[in-house]
Structures are given as structure tokens and as C-alpha cells.
Amino acid sequence: MKNIHNVLISKKLDSSIKLSSPIALSCLQSSYPSSSGSFKPELIEPVIKPMLEFLKQTDSYLMVNAYPFFAYESNADVISLDYALFRDNPGNVDSGNGLKYMSLLDAQLDAVYAAMSALKYDDVKLVVSETGWPSKGDENEIGAGQDNAAAYNGNLVRRVLTGNGTPLRPKVDLEVYLFALFNENSKNGPTSERNYGLFYPNEEKVYNIPLNRASLAGWTGGKSQTKPINDTTTDGGSVSTTGSGQTWCVANGKLGQKKLQQALDYACGEGGVDCQSIQPGATCYDPNTLEAHASFAFNGYYQKKNRMMGTCYFGGAAYVVTQPPKFGKCQLEAGN
């Protein structure tokens, strides 16, 4: 970011082009209640503070990818669906600062503000660079569904166009980028990953929502559901149920053999994974494919690192799944 900024200065473009980089809410050590918001200690000195200082000096803003869907999916027993979807609800009072929250997104953003404030960076602006809700998901992806997606995105538009800032920053306008315009039908990962769009790849609408003030007049807030909605089918048929919270790391077969092999060599070498099971004659040698062997090694590394953020990436060669991967008779170790 600093290098690119120096180039912009040399071209006299630094005042008109601002640089930033998005963070996920997983970089927070604490987010509930919002007033306790704090960054993970291991990220503060090497990443967060230098970046916030850069953003402050260049008058840029912190980009945040915030997805209430993930919080609801993991805590549906304690988080109200109406609270997550901006629908009418009793609200939640923050025990730390006494502020009342009527939506989960507002609470998440104020947790980021609180984390920034703890580091003395109250003056850095914030923009929501991604948020959305999937219209389809696997059986264990609680809350994924077309009605819920329409309610979240439609009510989000209404919230941004007619509301103020967050309870902690009421005078600061919300700037939000909706994810996504189109369903990414070739994307890897859980079914939800392919179903965040407002449109199908053939340009047909997935559902109707208001997108400007004029269309808000007839918006009622989306259907209210007594139970979470799930669509349990994928392009290839039905999907199996898996234990809540279990995740595995598998290889991205579309990346190409060269990069997969390099990542496999790293996992079994410097990464410290015991790869004896994928040697000839061993339990997980069959099927004898690079993708299967790489999945074994990637998952071994991922589980060894306690499924920490960034440990299932390998330069794009791997991704996390929530259904048990099948590679012949080989079963990959699962984590909760």
C-alpha cells in the first residue's frame, strides 16, 4: 500500500485516489458486546496499527467485510433472525455503553469502531466493502434462503438510504457495498458461496428488492419466517448433512497442477504434515490423484494449525468446506 501510494504521489494522483485494504470481522478478538470490540493481539503490531496509521496519514478509510449471516449461522440459538435481517425486533442493549442496537450489522460495525478506538484511531473513517446474504445454502448453513436474502438486502438498502450512522457513530453516514451483483456459479466451497448474487449468471433476477428511494415506497421488509430457511440442493443434486461447525480444507483442482504440487510439497515439507498416508500402498494413496493427495496434506496442515484464519489458502490452492470430503476410502480429519 505504501509503495503504491508513493507512485500515486509521483504522478500527483494521491489526493484523488485513496488506498485501502479490506479486513474481515475474524480479525477481532472480541465483538460482543460491541463496546468490548478489540483486535486480535497477534495482528495489532504487525498489521492493524501500521495500516490504521497509513489510512490516517493519507485520509483514507478502513474497509470492512461484515456478514451477519455468518454470525447468525453459528449462533442461531441465541441471535434473533429478525435482528439479523433488520426486521422489527426488541433490540439489544450493550451492557458496556448502554446503547441500544436494532440490527446485528450495526453492532458488528460498532465493534470495529470500538477496536479502532482502543488503539487511538477514532478519526479513521470506515466503509463496508462487502455485506450480503446467500439465497441458497447447504443443509447445515442455517438461515440461507431466498426469502431471508431478499429481506436482508432489501432492508439493508432501506437502512442505508433512510437511516443515520451506527449508535456509536450516529453522525457518520453508512457507506455500504452489496455483495454481490451476480451469483458466482463456478465458485468453490459451500453452496452459499455460489449464491450471494441479486442476479443469476444468465441475468435473470434471483429476487426483487428496492435499490433506490423511489422503490422503497412499496417495500414491506421481506417475509417473516418462523423457522430458518435452507435450500438443501446444489447444481448436482442433494447434499449430505454434517455436524454443525465441522470444517475441512481441500484442494482447488482448478488452480493447475504446478501450483497444487508446490503447495503440496510445502505442506508435507516445511509445513510439517505427516504425509506417510498418501505414499504408495498407504491408506490414502488411492485415489492416486494430485487433488486428493493435496487435499489430505492441506487438511492436515489446517487441522494442525487449529483451523486458524489463513491456514487453508496456500496461495489460492485450497479452500474450506463444511461437508465431509470424499476421496475413495480416505477420510480426512475433521475439526469443530
TrEMBL record:
Outline the extent of the X8 domain: 247-332
Lineage top rank: taxon: Eukaryota
What are the GO cellular component annotations?
plasma membrane; plasmodesma; side of membrane
Q: Which InterPro entries match?
A: GH, Glyco_hydro_17, Glyco_hydro_17_plant, X8
Name listed for the protein in its UniProt record: Glucan endo-1,3-beta-glucosidase
User: One Pfam family, short name please?
Assistant: X8
Provide this UniProt record's keywords sorted from A to Z.
Cell membrane, Disulfide bond, Glycoprotein, Glycosidase, GPI-anchor, Hydrolase, Lipoprotein, Membrane, Signal
Q: Decide whether keyword tRNA processing is in the record.
A: no
Gene Ontology molecular function: hydrolase activity, hydrolyzing O-glycosyl compounds
Q: Give its localization.
A: Cell membrane
The opening ranks of the lineage are:
Eukaryota, Viridiplantae, Streptophyta, Embryophyta, Tracheophyta
Coiled coil ranges: none
Topology in the lipid bilayer: Lipid-anchor; GPI-anchor
Q: Which GO terms describe its biological process?
A: carbohydrate metabolic process
